[in-house]
Amino acid sequence: MRQVFLDTETTGLDPNQGQINNRQLSENQFHMYVNPERDIDAAAQEVHGITLEFLKDKSFFKDIAEDFLSFIRGSELIIHNAPFDIGFLNMELGRMGLSNVEDHIEKVTDSLVMARELRPGQRNNLDALCRTYKVDNSLWINIHR
Protein backbone atom coordinates (compact mmCIF):
# COMPACT_ATOMS: atom_id res chain seq x y z
CA MET A 1 0.00 0.00 0.00
CA ARG A 2 1.20 3.50 -0.79
CA GLN A 3 1.89 5.53 2.35
CA VAL A 4 1.80 9.33 2.45
CA PHE A 5 3.35 11.23 5.35
CA LEU A 6 1.31 14.34 5.94
CA ASP A 7 1.88 17.49 7.98
CA THR A 8 -0.40 20.50 7.72
CA GLU A 9 0.33 22.31 10.96
CA THR A 10 0.32 25.73 9.29
CA THR A 11 3.45 24.86 7.32
CA GLY A 12 1.96 22.63 4.63
CA LEU A 13 3.02 19.14 3.58
CA ASP A 14 6.53 18.01 4.47
CA PRO A 15 8.61 18.26 1.27
CA ASN A 16 11.24 15.86 2.63
CA GLN A 17 8.93 12.92 3.20
CA GLY A 18 6.53 12.69 0.29
CA GLN A 19 5.26 9.15 -0.08
CA ILE A 20 6.46 5.62 0.51
CA ASN A 21 5.75 2.74 -1.87
CA ASN A 22 6.40 -0.70 -0.38
CA ARG A 23 8.41 0.96 2.40
CA GLN A 24 10.69 2.71 -0.11
CA LEU A 25 10.79 6.51 -0.36
CA SER A 26 9.51 7.69 -3.72
CA GLU A 27 10.34 10.86 -5.58
CA ASN A 28 6.62 11.70 -5.68
CA GLN A 29 5.91 14.63 -3.35
CA PHE A 30 3.23 17.25 -2.86
CA HIS A 31 4.26 20.46 -1.13
CA MET A 32 2.23 23.65 -1.19
CA TYR A 33 2.11 26.88 0.70
CA VAL A 34 -1.50 28.03 0.88
CA ASN A 35 -2.93 31.47 1.52
CA PRO A 36 -4.91 30.92 4.74
CA GLU A 37 -7.36 33.75 3.97
CA ARG A 38 -7.03 34.89 7.58
CA ASP A 39 -4.48 36.38 9.96
CA ILE A 40 -1.77 34.15 11.40
CA ASP A 41 -1.61 33.98 15.19
CA ALA A 42 1.58 35.56 16.51
CA ALA A 43 2.36 32.43 18.55
CA ALA A 44 2.02 30.19 15.49
CA GLN A 45 4.19 32.50 13.41
CA GLU A 46 6.83 32.38 16.15
CA VAL A 47 6.93 28.59 15.86
CA HIS A 48 7.22 28.25 12.08
CA GLY A 49 8.32 31.68 10.88
CA ILE A 50 5.86 31.79 7.99
CA THR A 51 4.29 35.21 7.55
CA LEU A 52 1.05 36.33 5.99
CA GLU A 53 3.13 38.57 3.74
CA PHE A 54 4.89 35.45 2.38
CA LEU A 55 1.56 33.63 1.88
CA LYS A 56 -0.48 36.47 0.37
CA ASP A 57 0.33 35.57 -3.27
CA LYS A 58 0.00 31.79 -2.77
CA SER A 59 -2.90 29.68 -4.01
CA PHE A 60 -6.05 29.26 -1.98
CA PHE A 61 -6.90 25.79 -0.69
CA LYS A 62 -9.87 25.63 -3.07
CA ASP A 63 -7.43 25.99 -5.97
CA ILE A 64 -5.26 23.03 -4.96
CA ALA A 65 -7.79 20.76 -3.22
CA GLU A 66 -8.44 18.46 -6.18
CA ASP A 67 -4.69 18.01 -6.82
CA PHE A 68 -4.20 17.25 -3.12
CA LEU A 69 -7.02 14.70 -3.10
CA SER A 70 -5.60 13.06 -6.23
CA PHE A 71 -2.21 12.81 -4.54
CA ILE A 72 -3.53 11.09 -1.40
CA ARG A 73 -6.25 8.99 -3.08
CA GLY A 74 -6.06 5.29 -2.15
CA SER A 75 -3.15 5.74 0.27
CA GLU A 76 -2.54 5.24 3.95
CA LEU A 77 -1.96 8.64 5.56
CA ILE A 78 0.60 8.72 8.36
CA ILE A 79 0.13 11.85 10.45
CA HIS A 80 1.53 12.96 13.80
CA ASN A 81 -1.52 14.03 15.83
CA ALA A 82 -3.88 13.00 13.04
CA PRO A 83 -7.14 14.37 14.50
CA PHE A 84 -5.69 17.90 14.37
CA ASP A 85 -4.66 17.75 10.70
CA ILE A 86 -7.66 15.74 9.52
CA GLY A 87 -10.01 18.11 11.35
CA PHE A 88 -8.61 21.16 9.56
CA LEU A 89 -8.51 19.45 6.16
CA ASN A 90 -12.09 18.19 6.53
CA MET A 91 -13.25 21.66 7.58
CA GLU A 92 -11.72 23.18 4.43
CA LEU A 93 -13.06 20.41 2.19
CA GLY A 94 -16.51 20.81 3.76
CA ARG A 95 -16.48 24.54 3.03
CA MET A 96 -16.08 23.59 -0.63
CA GLY A 97 -18.80 20.93 -0.55
CA LEU A 98 -16.26 18.11 -0.98
CA SER A 99 -16.23 14.86 0.96
CA ASN A 100 -13.94 14.22 3.93
CA VAL A 101 -10.33 13.07 3.57
CA GLU A 102 -11.30 9.63 4.89
CA ASP A 103 -13.51 9.08 1.83
CA HIS A 104 -10.45 9.30 -0.45
CA ILE A 105 -7.94 7.12 1.41
CA GLU A 106 -7.57 3.59 2.74
CA LYS A 107 -6.73 4.50 6.34
CA VAL A 108 -5.09 6.97 8.72
CA THR A 109 -2.24 6.00 11.04
CA ASP A 110 -1.52 8.42 13.89
CA SER A 111 2.21 8.39 14.66
CA LEU A 112 1.59 10.27 17.93
CA VAL A 113 -0.55 7.36 19.20
CA MET A 114 2.22 4.96 18.17
CA ALA A 115 4.86 7.06 19.93
CA ARG A 116 2.83 7.23 23.14
CA GLU A 117 2.46 3.44 23.12
CA LEU A 118 6.20 2.95 22.57
CA ARG A 119 7.32 5.75 24.93
CA PRO A 120 4.70 6.22 27.66
CA GLY A 121 5.17 9.28 29.83
CA GLN A 122 7.84 10.78 27.59
CA ARG A 123 7.82 13.78 25.27
CA ASN A 124 6.61 12.56 21.91
CA ASN A 125 6.58 15.63 19.73
CA LEU A 126 8.39 15.33 16.40
CA ASP A 127 11.55 17.09 17.61
CA ALA A 128 11.83 14.75 20.62
CA LEU A 129 11.28 11.69 18.44
CA CYS A 130 13.90 12.86 15.95
CA ARG A 131 16.41 13.25 18.78
CA THR A 132 15.56 9.83 20.25
CA TYR A 133 15.69 7.95 16.96
CA LYS A 134 18.58 10.01 15.54
CA VAL A 135 16.59 11.37 12.61
CA ASP A 136 18.25 14.39 11.03
CA ASN A 137 15.55 17.05 10.76
CA SER A 138 17.96 19.94 10.12
CA LEU A 139 16.83 20.36 6.50
CA TRP A 140 13.20 20.65 7.64
CA ILE A 141 14.14 23.13 10.35
CA ASN A 142 16.21 25.24 7.93
CA ILE A 143 13.39 25.36 5.38
CA HIS A 144 10.53 26.10 7.75
CA ARG A 145 11.91 27.98 10.74
Structure report:
It is a single chain. This protein is α/β, with parallel strands linked by helices. Helices cover 41% and strands 12% of the residues. It is built from 7 helices and 5 strands; from the N terminus they run E-E-E-H-H-H-E-H-E-H-H-H. The chain has helices at 42-48, 52-55, 61-72, 82-95, 111-118, 126-132, 138-144, and strands at 2-6, 19-21, 24-25, 76-79, 107-110. It has a 5-stranded mixed sheet with strand order 3-2-1-4-5. The longest helix has 14 residues, at 82-95. It starts with a strand and ends with a helix.
Low-confidence stretches: 11-18, 141-145
Task: Identify the overall geometry.
Answer: globular
* Nearest-integer average pLDDT: 83
| Helical stretch tally | 7
Q: Going across the major beta sheet, what is the strand order?
A: 3-2-1-4-5
Task: Give the helix/strand class.
Answer: alpha/beta
The number of E-state strands comes to: 5
Terminal residue distance? 32 Å
What fraction, in percent, of the residue positions are helical? 40-55%
| N-to-C order of helices and strands | EEEHHHEHEHHH
Strand content: 5-15%
Briefly summarize what is shown.
The chain has seven helices and five strands. By secondary structure, it is α/β, with parallel strands linked by helices. Strands 3-2-1-4-5 form a five-stranded mixed sheet.
Sum up the structure in keywords.
145 residues, alpha/beta, five-stranded mixed β-sheet, 7 helices, globular, disordered C terminus
Per-chain topology:
Layout: E1 2-6, E2 19-21, E3 24-25, H1 42-48, H2 52-55, H3 61-72, E4 76-79, H4 82-95, E5 107-110, H5 111-118, H6 126-132, H7 138-144
Parallel strand pairs: 1-4, 4-5
Antiparallel strand pairs: 1-2, 2-3
